[in-house]
Please model this.
Amino acid sequence: MSHRAVPQWGPTAPAGAPGPRGVEVRRARRDDLEAALDLLEEVAAERRYIGAEPPIDRAATRARWEEEFLGSGHSAMFVASRDGDVIGVASMLGDGLSKLGMFVARPERGRGVGSALLAAALGWARRAGVYKVTLQVWPHNERAIKLYERFGFEREGYLRRHYRRRNGDIWDCVVMGLVL
Model:
């Protein structure tokens, strides 16, 4: 197992740590959910970077988020915002072994928002006693894979023809993990 230095951004970072200018990363609140759903719909409509595809069942997703992330001490959701607009979301589902999910608005990608969200989520995971974080990512999402690897995630597996897309295609995915 390799141990790499983990970049520090966001509210868990030491004072003076570099991060994206003008971006606030914090735990999600109930009043963030509509904007987070709007962003989920935008990213899902790209049909390229996340598993969700349109149409999004907003009522069901909101209810699930409220139960899993706002009503539980065992999971957490974080939002990144700029000028009051939600521009990114990260979630950690489960205690002990936690599953990471994340999506960022197209114009904000490559500007440190994902790093800030990931740092906040991993900071929460460490404080919550999570021993391992897992995630799944499409093999073509090379920028995300590089981001996760910078934070110490390792490729643990490759699932071939695993997820059926609405158009009938079946996509592979890379399984990654980080032991805390």
